[in-house]
């Protein structure tokens, strides 16, 4: 049997696995990525791409291609059988919080092809029809047996990463439990051509006493996505068809379906794996957490897993950090996954409950509450923070102004350029909003970590930065630590504790 070696073996070539591969490759890691499917997906599946994901894509240098392929969702309308009950402008509802203050839709099949193309440009091809059969690990690495097109191969890797979905072979291989449950309702999803007053650039949430539905544009060609609960009278049918539920779907959504491009029904689960790491084996994305699609968080959370794991693995594999750096992957990401599953579960139960009281609340009171929430700029910004994932924090060391260690670096724009531009280095850096003293710069010089000074503007103050405070920023754009004073000692101790050695030029 053929044998080979690599630094990282990734199992699964969905968005999570592809982003992990892109990040690792940009930082010079030798890797292989396999998937048992013959090619990328052919259906739209996940469609919401949140602002935080677009920020990561800017760091990778691929955001322009992603934006060119998708659709900016300009508004959200809450619809009841009586008409439009509330409207939220989504075109710039996060203005000042991100370079991407809008809602954005991109079908997963197109999304994956963009990621694959950029990965191939970086010199890595997804190995298709390649299935992980078994693996074992020891103190030095992982030995995996893979079958590709009927031929076996043994791959020796320093680390194994499972991004292979909800029925993950990798998760099963390390015997991790996947506690949670399954929602009682059946759901439908369809990509369709429609007639009606539906706006092609808007998201419609349709609420009714007996259920709900979502109508969302997914392709520049004009098709829309329909998502909703299968009517109770149809759930017992051996095979649920769109024609069987057409009347109810059109009644709730207010559209007339001209053609059905794709239709499927499914059951939803809410689960989080017991752990995200066992020794040299990691899981990410749906392999570690699955939940309701409320808020369009699932795929974006997997991509966040990939970025968090990617920069840490690259640093350790490349000898630029102590192996203890990777220890933070599991606690940071599993804590967020658990919070997310709990919150989406609560929201989804309200949206899908068939009780009379919940139905009345959903149809009559919920639209009014949404209308009140979005009536002010503060409400719109709260909504943006909630869904965009810019509010994810790994609260850690120290703080200055309103920014604490673990927070995502707040975004500040200026005529001279925004403060996220230096993050394209995918490396450690120090930010100061004001002036960095010569003594501090001199002390940091020997670490190889660049110091970026930005003017302390009203926008910087509004974002929460302290004047002349020092912020150590991680490769993923999160603040590692912050201090009010410019004493270099805490930063030098932090850098020494993890043996951080930045400055390695990324691969193109």
From TrEMBL:
**What are this entry's molecular-function GO terms?**
monooxygenase activity
Q: Where are the transmembrane segments?
A: none
Q: Where is the signal peptide?
A: none
Pfam families from the entry?
Answer: FAD_binding_3
Superkingdom assignment: Bacteria
Record keywords: Oxidoreductase included?
Answer: yes
UniProt cofactor(s): FAD
> Which key words are in the record?
FAD, Flavoprotein, Monooxygenase, Oxidoreductase
Q: Domain (FAD-binding): give its ranges.
A: 6-342
InterPro entries (UniProt xref) = FAD-bd, FAD/NAD-bd_sf, RIFMO-like
> What PANTHER family does the record tag this protein with?
BINDING MONOOXYGENASE, PUTATIVE (JCVI)-RELATED, TRK SYSTEM POTASSIUM UPTAKE PROTEIN
Any idea what this protein is called?
Answer: FAD-dependent monooxygenase
The record lists the organism as Sinorhizobium psoraleae
Its taxonomic path starts at: Bacteria, Pseudomonadati, Pseudomonadota, Alphaproteobacteria, Hyphomicrobiales
């Amino acid at each position: 049997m053929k044998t080979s070696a690599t630094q990282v073996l990734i199992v699964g070539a969905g968005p999570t696995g592809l982003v992990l591969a892109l990040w690792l490759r940009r930082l010079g890691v030798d890797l292989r990525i396999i998937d048992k499917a013959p090619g990328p997906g052919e259906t739209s599946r996940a469609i919401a791409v949140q602002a935080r994901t677009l920020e990561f894509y800017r760091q990778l240098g691929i955001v322009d291609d992603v934006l060119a392929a998708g659709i900016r969702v300009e508004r959200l309308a809450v619809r009841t059988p009586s008409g439009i009950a509330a409207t939220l402008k989504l075109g710039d509802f996060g203005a000042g919080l991100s370079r991407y203050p809008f809602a954005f839709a991109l079908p997963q099949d197109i999304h994956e092809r963009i990621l694959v193309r950029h990965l191939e440009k970086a010199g890595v091809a997804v190995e298709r029809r390649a299935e992980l059969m078994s693996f074992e690990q020891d103190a030095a690495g992982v030995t995996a047996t893979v079958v590709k097109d009927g031929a076996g191969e043994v791959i020796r890797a320093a680390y194994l990463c499972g991004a292979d979905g909800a029925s993950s072979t990798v998760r099963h291989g390390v015997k991790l439990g996947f506690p949670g449950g399954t929602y009682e309702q059946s759901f439908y999803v369809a990509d369709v051509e429609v007639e009606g007053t539906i706006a092609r650039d808007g998201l419609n949430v349709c609420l009714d006493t007996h259920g709900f539905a979502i109508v969302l544009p997914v392709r520049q060609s004009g098709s829309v996505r329909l998502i909703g609960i299968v009517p109770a009278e149809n759930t017992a049918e051996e095979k649920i068809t769109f024609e069987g539920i057409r009347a109810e779907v059109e009644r709730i959504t207010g559209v007339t379906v001209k053609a059905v491009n794709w239709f499927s029904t499914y059951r939803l689960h809410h689960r989080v794996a017991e752990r995200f790491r066992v020794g040299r084996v990691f899981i990410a994305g749906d392999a570690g957490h699955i939940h309701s699609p409320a808020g369009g968080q699932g795929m974006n959370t997997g991509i966040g897993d990939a970025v968090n794991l990617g920069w840490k693995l690259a640093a350790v594999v490349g000898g630029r950090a102590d192996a203890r750096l990777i220890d933070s992957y599991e606690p940071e990401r599993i804590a967020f996954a658990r919070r997310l599953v709990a919150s989406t579960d609560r929201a989804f139960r309200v949206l899908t409950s068939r009780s009379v009281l919940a139905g009345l609340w959903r149809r009559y009171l919920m639209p009014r509450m949404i209308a009140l929430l979005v009536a002010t700029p503060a409400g719109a910004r709260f909504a943006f923070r909630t869904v965009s994932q810019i509010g994810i924090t790994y609260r850690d060391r120290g703080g200055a102004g309103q920014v604490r260690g673990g927070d995502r670096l707040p975004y500040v724009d200026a005529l001279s350029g925004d403060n996220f531009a230096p993050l394209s280095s995918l490396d450690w850096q120090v930010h100061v909003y004001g002036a960095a003293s010569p003594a501090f710069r001199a002390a940091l010089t020997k670490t190889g970590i660049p110091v970026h000074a930005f003017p302390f503007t009203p926008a910087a103050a509004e974002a929460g930065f302290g004047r002349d405070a020092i912020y150590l920023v991680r490769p993923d754009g999160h603040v590692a630590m912050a201090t009010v004073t410019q004493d270099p000692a805490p930063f030098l101790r932090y850098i020494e504790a993890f043996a951080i050695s930045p400055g390695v030029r990324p691969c193109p």
